[in-house]
């Protein structure tokens, strides 16, 4: 059935696009991109690289999209026959990975083939692509979006979820309703108030497997799992508030050790902003919300939903050394961020002004009372008081950044972070890692074409592998060239250097980067989703082209 849907999308895409091309005044636009990341690997026993079977490894993608007034069509080809390290067990292969045809008017949009969608914050549905993480959990099927009335948006979809080069057997279907109340009320509009309400439902239809708890007891696994989401968003002036609640029916899986407890997540987010100041406060409690299209799979590829992490996505190397991964079995998560800009020609602002940002994140386990009566697998499995914390802290960081222009040509960014990282919970072992991280990032602009940027970072800890130091120099010569050298040094335990040298050339829509060096084994994370990347060494080549 899934093959027929893909073939039908192909057959529809070509004639629909050709018809659109012949429509008077409609016009046809063709866009796309090519991305190829290549590694010429070298083995290095000191950093623990793999034993490579091939001299050239690559992840390559080619997208093309044909767009017209009422019809779009597109496809993506991926080549990973010899994939980069960390992808070899999953994405190894090549072929047509994504194809779709879309018809759209002002009030209706119909998509057939592969598509991505998110309901609300993604608590019950989020499909997306993130190549650096190896995530592409698109749905193959049909999606309809309609705007039948002013301020009303309705979505309906059904399909099978991609898992690498195949699709899981479960059929995922759902609907979403979004109401923009302010568009119906002149009083709200005149008062500068925006109010929206949303509700979503997702069903997973997965044929039950014969799962035995022991030789005499078979698990009664539900064929249908339903998830519901309700949300409200209010914005007035400088204040915005979002409240969202979602729950999931019984869904015994390998994630929760096949218990029959229902899942739920609640979130409250509030922000305030005005010129020169911003404030964000967030809280989230989740419990047993792993929602997959295959109850027997682990990893990051089969999630139907997404639990956002209330922690910063750090870009500095040492600040990102211990990134947090959202725990789907349950957590209390909090985040607060304050940004303030001290004006020019004041005591703290100086001649050019000073921007200060303070962020605090804390993630804790939820309370769990594990049943000990021997019937956990035909009950909820455990009890949990909503407001009560559990015994363990998963993650915490306090991050302070000061962004200051010293002279017209020189800009300085300073950062300090105090971090607690529960390596046992997030990675499986290692205990609590407590670290202090210091960053100095300076940029000097020689003229309109030449800029030199440098970073100095230091991570101090008595845990795990001990202290780390990092240094980087980056020279950009507009509009074509950039030269980067860096070294990350473990001065605590291993005494290893992870050095990199890169040259980047840009010409129009083309970007080519060549480099050589070592990469430390670790986790690459984005939004609380993490993928393990093994240590590598060798020459790298990266090419990007957008047309």
State the helicity in percent bands.
under 10%
Structure classification: mainly beta
Give the uncertain stretches in residue-range form: 3-11, 20-25, 374-378
Total E-strand runs: 32
- Summed over residues and divided by their number, the pLDDT gives a mean of 91
Largest sheet entry: 24 strands, antiparallel, barrel
Tell me the number of helical segments per DSSP (H or I, 4 or more residues long): 3
Structural shape: globular
Radius of gyration: 26 Å
- Strand-residue fraction? over 45%
Distance between the termini: 34 Å
Would you kindly provide a brief summary of this structure?
The chain is mainly β. It is 6% helix and 56% strand.
Characteristics:
547 residues; mainly beta; 24-stranded antiparallel beta barrel; two-stranded antiparallel sheet; 3 helices
SSE order and pairing:
Layout: H1 2-22, E1 28-41, E2 57-68, E3 71-80, E4 93-104, E5 108-115, E6 129-130, E7 135-136, E8 139-146, E9 152-163, E10 166-180, H2 186-190, E11 193-205, E12 212-214, E13 217-218, E14 224-236, E15 239-248, E16 263-274, E17 277-287, E18 330-342, E19 354-366, E20 369-370, E21 382-383, E22 389-405, E23 410-422, H3 423-427, E24 432-445, E25 450-461, E26 468-477, E27 481-490, E28 497-507, E29 510-519, E30 522-526, E31 529-533, E32 536-546
Antiparallel strand pairs: 1-2, 1-32, 2-3, 3-4, 4-5, 5-8, 6-7, 8-9, 9-10, 10-11, 11-14, 12-13, 14-15, 15-16, 16-17, 17-18, 18-19, 19-22, 20-21, 22-23, 23-24, 24-25, 25-26, 26-27, 27-28, 28-29, 29-32, 30-31
